[in-house]
Amino acid sequence: MKILVAVKRVIDYNVQIRVKEDNSGVVTENVKMSTNPPDDNAIEEAVKIKESGKAKEIVAVTIGEDKAQETVRKALAVGADRGIHVKVDGLVEPLAVSKILKNIVEKEKPDLVFMGKQAIDDDCNQTGQMLSALLKWPQATFASKIEVKEKTLEVTREVDEGLETIEVNVPAIITCDLRLNEPRYASLPNIMKAKKKPLELINATDLGIDTKPRIEQIKVEEPPKRKAGIKVANVAELVNKLKNEAKVI
Ligand code: AMP
Asked: Are 112 and 170 in contact (CB under 8 A)?
């Protein structure tokens, strides 16, 4: 089995996001960037499946600017065999990403595509679903457990009511939840070895795919600052304030 894993470079989840002064977006210059967290789970799961002998090859793919290559290198350092970087300058929306991934899937012919359930920068939660529609492949989203069967996958998903277990035919698109596994760290020797693993560079313009944004971002603003709280002396004062000042009871 061959597994393709989509990894996106995003602002690190520990960074305090700052909005640009002209409200045109968020500051990305000199800001720590990392792999989108659920994409680390997607890579980890693919590596575990390979370690169990059920997969032969893992290909990590990223779509983005030059520096997005770092994300593929990290995937190679934790166990992916090969990398693909599709170069696109500027913002690339889920529809364009899924069209590019469709093109890569048609060339690479993987049995499974693993992705994150959501990118923490755009919070779209769309790319896996769009790719599934474009390829007409089954999808299992928000996977928190994956079991590889003969020609199917059994996937446990986190839904509002609890856990849902479904079976999907292979080939399939799986989007991974943070609860799926504990991603491993890349060791220094593996980071060094990853530098020698093959990484193919493709220009999105050579694929003939229109990556123009369909969404116009009008402005980005900081959320309103929270007002300072107050301390009340007793329950009677609290009830009085809730009734007469906040008017919520
Ligand atoms: P989104 O639909 O933007 O929330 O992204 C969902 C998932 O799609 C991510 O967790 C990634 O696995 C994948 N993805 C989105 N954008 C990219 C990108 N530019 N490069 C590689 N994978 C991506």
From this structure: yes
